[in-house]
Amino acid sequence: MMFSRLSLAVPLACLLAAPLPAQDLAAYESADRAAVAIWNQMPLTLRNAGFVTEEAGGYGLNTPRDGAVFAPGEPLLVYAEPLGYGWRQNDDATFTFGLSVDLVLRDPSGTVLGSQDDFQRAEITSNRQNREFFVTLTLNLTNAPVGDYILEYIVHDQITEKSATMSFPFTIAAP
User: Fold this and answer.
1) In what order do the strands lie in the sheet with 76-83?
2) Which of 87, 175, 85, 80 is nearest to 135 (CA)?
3) 0.90 exceeded by the pTM?
4) How far apart are CA 165 and CA 61, in angstroms?
5) CATH number of the domain that 154 lies in?
6) Dist CA 140 CA 121 (whole Å)
7) Would 162 be classed as within a structural domain?
8) Which of 15, 85, 101, 115 sits 20 to 30 Å CA-CA off 134?
9) pLDDT by residue (tens digit) across 7-20?
10) Which residues contact 125 (CB under 8 A, 6 or more apart)?
Protein backbone atom coordinates (compact mmCIF):
# COMPACT_ATOMS: atom_id res chain seq x y z
CA MET A 1 0.00 0.00 0.00
CA MET A 2 2.91 2.34 0.72
CA PHE A 3 4.09 1.95 -2.88
CA SER A 4 0.77 3.09 -4.39
CA ARG A 5 0.63 6.22 -2.20
CA LEU A 6 4.15 7.17 -3.25
CA SER A 7 3.41 6.50 -6.91
CA LEU A 8 0.39 8.83 -6.73
CA ALA A 9 2.21 11.50 -4.74
CA VAL A 10 5.06 11.93 -7.24
CA PRO A 11 2.86 12.68 -10.31
CA LEU A 12 0.61 14.92 -8.19
CA ALA A 13 3.65 16.90 -6.96
CA CYS A 14 4.85 17.28 -10.55
CA LEU A 15 1.47 18.65 -11.61
CA LEU A 16 1.44 21.16 -8.76
CA ALA A 17 4.93 22.37 -9.66
CA ALA A 18 4.15 22.73 -13.37
CA PRO A 19 3.74 26.27 -14.73
CA LEU A 20 0.24 27.62 -15.09
CA PRO A 21 -1.31 27.37 -18.56
CA ALA A 22 -0.64 30.32 -20.84
CA GLN A 23 -3.04 33.24 -20.46
CA ASP A 24 -5.52 33.86 -23.23
CA LEU A 25 -5.13 36.50 -25.94
CA ALA A 26 -7.37 39.00 -24.14
CA ALA A 27 -5.12 38.94 -21.07
CA TYR A 28 -2.05 39.40 -23.27
CA GLU A 29 -3.61 42.34 -25.12
CA SER A 30 -4.62 43.93 -21.81
CA ALA A 31 -1.03 43.69 -20.57
CA ASP A 32 0.19 45.06 -23.91
CA ARG A 33 -2.10 48.11 -23.59
CA ALA A 34 -0.71 48.69 -20.09
CA ALA A 35 2.85 48.48 -21.46
CA VAL A 36 2.00 51.04 -24.16
CA ALA A 37 0.55 53.38 -21.51
CA ILE A 38 3.81 53.17 -19.52
CA TRP A 39 5.83 53.58 -22.73
CA ASN A 40 3.94 56.77 -23.60
CA GLN A 41 4.80 58.31 -20.22
CA MET A 42 8.52 57.51 -20.24
CA PRO A 43 11.21 59.80 -21.64
CA LEU A 44 12.95 58.86 -24.86
CA THR A 45 15.51 56.34 -23.66
CA LEU A 46 18.38 54.66 -25.50
CA ARG A 47 18.90 51.13 -24.17
CA ASN A 48 21.85 48.82 -24.92
CA ALA A 49 23.72 51.65 -26.65
CA GLY A 50 27.35 51.14 -27.54
CA PHE A 51 29.97 50.45 -30.15
CA VAL A 52 29.40 47.25 -32.15
CA THR A 53 31.52 45.19 -34.52
CA GLU A 54 29.08 45.24 -37.47
CA GLU A 55 25.62 46.30 -38.61
CA ALA A 56 22.98 44.60 -36.47
CA GLY A 57 21.00 41.91 -38.25
CA GLY A 58 17.86 42.85 -36.30
CA TYR A 59 16.60 43.90 -32.90
CA GLY A 60 18.97 42.50 -30.28
CA LEU A 61 21.12 40.87 -32.96
CA ASN A 62 24.17 43.01 -32.33
CA THR A 63 27.72 42.15 -31.30
CA PRO A 64 29.19 44.63 -28.80
CA ARG A 65 32.68 45.81 -29.64
CA ASP A 66 35.45 45.10 -27.17
CA GLY A 67 36.84 48.54 -26.33
CA ALA A 68 36.71 51.91 -28.06
CA VAL A 69 40.08 52.09 -29.81
CA PHE A 70 39.85 52.39 -33.59
CA ALA A 71 42.42 52.36 -36.38
CA PRO A 72 42.60 55.44 -38.62
CA GLY A 73 39.82 55.22 -41.21
CA GLU A 74 37.98 52.44 -39.39
CA PRO A 75 34.21 53.13 -39.25
CA LEU A 76 32.57 53.70 -35.87
CA LEU A 77 29.33 51.72 -35.54
CA VAL A 78 26.92 52.42 -32.68
CA TYR A 79 23.88 50.28 -31.88
CA ALA A 80 20.97 51.48 -29.70
CA GLU A 81 17.41 50.45 -28.88
CA PRO A 82 15.18 53.52 -28.48
CA LEU A 83 12.30 53.31 -26.00
CA GLY A 84 9.52 55.78 -25.24
CA TYR A 85 9.12 57.22 -28.75
CA GLY A 86 5.64 58.06 -29.99
CA TRP A 87 3.42 56.84 -32.80
CA ARG A 88 1.02 58.75 -35.00
CA GLN A 89 -2.11 56.85 -36.00
CA ASN A 90 -2.85 57.34 -39.69
CA ASP A 91 -6.23 57.44 -41.46
CA ASP A 92 -5.67 53.91 -42.78
CA ALA A 93 -5.27 52.56 -39.19
CA THR A 94 -1.49 52.20 -39.55
CA PHE A 95 1.02 53.81 -37.19
CA THR A 96 4.01 55.96 -38.12
CA PHE A 97 7.03 56.60 -35.93
CA GLY A 98 10.36 58.17 -36.69
CA LEU A 99 13.65 59.40 -35.34
CA SER A 100 16.26 61.85 -36.49
CA VAL A 101 19.81 61.90 -35.19
CA ASP A 102 22.19 64.82 -34.87
CA LEU A 103 25.93 64.21 -34.66
CA VAL A 104 28.47 66.12 -32.57
CA LEU A 105 32.18 65.28 -32.43
CA ARG A 106 34.11 66.73 -29.48
CA ASP A 107 37.61 66.67 -28.11
CA PRO A 108 38.10 65.44 -24.51
CA SER A 109 37.71 69.00 -23.14
CA GLY A 110 34.26 69.26 -24.77
CA THR A 111 35.20 71.58 -27.63
CA VAL A 112 33.04 70.88 -30.69
CA LEU A 113 35.21 69.73 -33.59
CA GLY A 114 32.33 69.14 -35.98
CA SER A 115 28.59 68.58 -36.06
CA GLN A 116 25.80 67.67 -38.44
CA ASP A 117 22.07 68.04 -37.85
CA ASP A 118 19.91 65.27 -39.32
CA PHE A 119 22.94 63.00 -39.65
CA GLN A 120 20.51 60.12 -39.99
CA ARG A 121 16.73 59.93 -40.18
CA ALA A 122 14.29 57.02 -40.14
CA GLU A 123 10.51 56.92 -40.47
CA ILE A 124 8.56 53.70 -40.40
CA THR A 125 4.88 52.97 -40.99
CA SER A 126 3.50 49.74 -39.56
CA ASN A 127 0.23 48.00 -38.79
CA ARG A 128 1.32 47.87 -35.13
CA GLN A 129 2.78 50.19 -32.51
CA ASN A 130 6.18 48.56 -32.84
CA ARG A 131 8.35 48.65 -29.72
CA GLU A 132 11.20 46.43 -30.89
CA PHE A 133 13.14 48.98 -32.89
CA PHE A 134 16.88 49.57 -33.18
CA VAL A 135 19.30 51.88 -34.92
CA THR A 136 22.82 51.27 -36.11
CA LEU A 137 24.67 54.52 -36.77
CA THR A 138 27.87 54.49 -38.84
CA LEU A 139 30.42 57.30 -38.75
CA ASN A 140 33.43 57.36 -41.08
CA LEU A 141 36.25 59.62 -39.90
CA THR A 142 38.65 59.09 -42.78
CA ASN A 143 40.89 62.10 -42.12
CA ALA A 144 40.74 62.36 -38.33
CA PRO A 145 44.16 62.50 -36.68
CA VAL A 146 45.24 60.05 -34.00
CA GLY A 147 43.83 61.11 -30.62
CA ASP A 148 40.98 60.98 -28.14
CA TYR A 149 37.46 62.09 -29.04
CA ILE A 150 33.87 62.04 -27.81
CA LEU A 151 31.13 60.97 -30.22
CA GLU A 152 27.73 62.38 -29.31
CA TYR A 153 24.42 61.51 -30.93
CA ILE A 154 21.28 63.49 -30.11
CA VAL A 155 18.23 61.40 -30.99
CA HIS A 156 14.93 63.21 -31.65
CA ASP A 157 11.52 61.56 -31.71
CA GLN A 158 9.65 62.99 -34.71
CA ILE A 159 6.21 62.41 -33.16
CA THR A 160 6.51 63.55 -29.53
CA GLU A 161 9.52 65.86 -29.87
CA LYS A 162 11.24 64.00 -27.01
CA SER A 163 15.01 63.72 -27.30
CA ALA A 164 17.87 61.81 -25.71
CA THR A 165 21.64 62.03 -25.97
CA MET A 166 24.23 59.28 -25.98
CA SER A 167 27.96 59.97 -25.73
CA PHE A 168 30.87 57.65 -26.40
CA PRO A 169 34.52 58.43 -25.71
CA PHE A 170 36.83 56.76 -28.22
CA THR A 171 40.40 56.82 -29.45
CA ILE A 172 41.89 56.75 -32.91
CA ALA A 173 45.23 55.02 -32.43
CA ALA A 174 48.27 54.83 -34.66
CA PRO A 175 48.34 51.63 -36.74
Assistant:
1) 45-51, 76-83, 135-139
2) 80
3) no
4) 22
5) 2.60.40.2550
6) 17
7) yes
8) 115
9) 444 444 444 555 55
10) 90, 94, 95, 96
